[in-house]
Amino acid sequence: MGLWLDIAGWGGAVAILASYLSVSMGWLRAGRRFQAANLVGSVAFIVNGSYYGAWPSVVTNVAWFVISAVALVRMQRAASRAASVPAPEVPAPAVVAPAAMAVAPAPGPAHPVPVVTASIPLVPQPAACYASPVTASVPLVRLAAEG
Q1: Domain annotation covers residue 97
Q2: Average pLDDT, whole number, for the chain?
Q3: Res 84: pLDDT
Q4: Which residue of 19, 48, 143, 147 has the fewest CB atoms within a 10 Å radius of its CB?
Q5: Which pLDDT value is given to residue 49?
Q6: Does one domain contain both 79 and 109?
Q7: What is the DSSP string of 62-116?
Q8: Containing domain of residue 8, as a range?
Q9: Better-scored residue on pLDDT, 48 or 119
Q10: Rounded distance, CA 93 to CA 109, Å?
Q11: Both 7 and 65 in a single domain?
């Protein structure tokens, strides 16, 4: 009987440590699997600690069990509520080009391919002393080689 309880204790240790490592390393989200592993591991520790009279470990793992059980119940309730409420349909926003964007011919000889330019603010937020933001017109894309 003692051998099986030792195996249960070591199994609980592996379950709790593996789930903690997985969440800490980002391999597992702290969701149902994490809580289930903690629940199973804490039960194994409770059984093992009770057999050996390790009461501080038993009390700690009873608290661990309750926390995991409550978390699992809350996750289940949240999932059932989310499944019963339809998601609202949100229309996609229209994409509008900024007014500052323009298509201008490339300097130099005339080319059939235009160059796209835009006004880019040099000051992120205009200060109170400026009447308007300071901008510069710079080419964003040059599609034709200069000749």
Answers
A1: no
A2: 77
A3: 80
A4: 147
A5: 93
A6: no
A7: HHHHHHHHHHHHHHHHHHHHHHHSPPPP-PPPPP---TT-EEEPPSSS--SS-EE
A8: 2-84
A9: 48
A10: 40
A11: yes
